[in-house]
Amino acid sequence: MRWIWIDRFLSFESGKSATAVKNLSLAEDHFSEHFPGYPVMPAPLILEGLAQTGGILVGEANNFGKNVVLAKIPKANFRREAFAGESLTYTTTLLQLSEIGGLVAGTVHVGEELIAEAEIFFAHVEPEQFQKLTGSSENFVFTGNLKHMIAMAKKAA
User: Fold this and answer.
1) What is the per-residue pLDDT for 33?
2) What residues act catalytically?
3) Which residue among 30, 40, 91, 148 is least enclosed by CB atoms within 10 Å?
4) What domains can you pick out in the chain, each with its CATH number?
C-alpha cells in the first residue's frame, strides 16, 4: 500500500524550495487508533509528509534522473500534535546538493503556528543499488502524475 502525505503543492521553485499542503480528515485510518478518544496525527507521519515534500524537491533538482531515498534525519523537533480538521503546510528549502545526495531544511505549520521542523538528508541511489534494495527497477516516486502536480505548482507561482 502506498501512502502519500501531501495533497498538493502550493509553490515549487526548482533547486530551491517547495511548499505543500496536507489536509487532515478524521476519516484517515491513523486517527481511529492514535489515540482512541484523542485523535492526533502521529509525529512520524508529520515527518513523512515533510520528507516527501523535500525528497521531491531533491529529485526534481536532478530532473528525476536519480533515485532519492531518505538516508538520515539529523534534527527533528515537534512542538505539538496535529489534529483532524487542520491543514499542515510543509515548507522545504534545499540547503545542499551533490552527487551523494541532498540536504533539506523544513518546517511544518498549522496556519501561522510552527508545529515541527527538521533537517533531512536524502541519498542518491544508482539503479543497480536501487534494484538490490527494493527488488524493483521502477522509480516508485517520480511518476507522470507527480511531475504534473509540480508543473501546476510552478505555473501558479
Assistant:
1) 74
2) 34
3) 148
4) 8-156 (3.10.129.10)
